[in-house]
């Protein structure tokens, strides 16, 4: 099991993680640290717990917005997939109709050819 030491608001924290996940945990902690630093600049040093809570709320709000956007995009994908399927069906129907027209025209041409040969 991996172990990482991260620094948030000038305090060090040891965090256990899976082997190979150390870099990712450092990256996540860096994001939290950035949020805490920004908050500390805005509201002052109001205590680590409050800063971490506020940072957590900001990050959770970002996550909530991202999840809503994902749902919206999934809906758009479903709509586009349905439209693509409908367009494919229409295309296939148009190809079949064109094939029927061409087949009919070929029969008429053959019939006209036979009549001309008979003359």
Please outline what is shown here.
With 119 residues, the chain is mainly α.
General description of the model:
The chain is mainly alpha-helical and 119 residues long. It has one domain (2-118). 78% of the residues lie in helices and 12% in strands. It is built from two helices and two strands; from the N terminus they run ββαα. The protein has helices at residues 22-43, 48-118, and strands at 2-8, 11-17. A two-stranded antiparallel ribbon has the order 1-2. A hairpin with a 2-residue loop joins β1 and β2. The longest helix is centred in the last third of the chain and has 71 residues, at 48-118. The model has no long low-confidence stretch (mean pLDDT 95).
Could you give the topology of this structure?
Layout: E1 2-8, E2 11-17, H1 22-43, H2 48-118
Antiparallel strand pairs: 1-2
Helix pairs in contact: 1-2
The number of helical elements comes to 2
Average pLDDT reading: 95
Please indicate the percent range of residues in DSSP E strands (runs of 2 or more): 5-15%
Strand order across the largest sheet: 1-2
Order of helices and strands: EEHH
What general outline do the C-alpha atoms trace? rod-shaped
**What is the number of independent domains?**
1
Count of distinct strands = 2
The radius of gyration is 33 Å
Question: Main sheet, how many strands, which sense, barrel?
Answer: 2 strands, antiparallel
The helix content is over 70%
Low-confidence stretches: none
| Structural class designation | mainly alpha
Distance separating the two termini? 95 Å
Classify the oligomer.
single chain
């Amino acid at each position: 099991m991996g172990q990482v030491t991260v620094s948030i608001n000038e305090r060090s924290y040891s965090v256990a993680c899976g082997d190979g996940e150390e870099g990712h945990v450092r990256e996540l902690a860096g994001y939290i640290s950035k949020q805490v630093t920004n908050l500390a600049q805005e509201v002052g040093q109001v205590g680590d717990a409050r800063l971490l809570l506020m940072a957590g709320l900001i990050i959770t709000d970002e996550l909530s917005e991202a999840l809503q956007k994902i749902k919206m995009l999934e809906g758009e994908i479903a709509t586009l997939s349905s439209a693509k399927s409908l367009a494919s069906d229409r295309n296939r129907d148009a190809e079949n109709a064109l094939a029927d027209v061409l087949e009919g025209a070929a029969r008429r041409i053959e019939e006209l050819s036979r009549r001309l040969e008979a003359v």
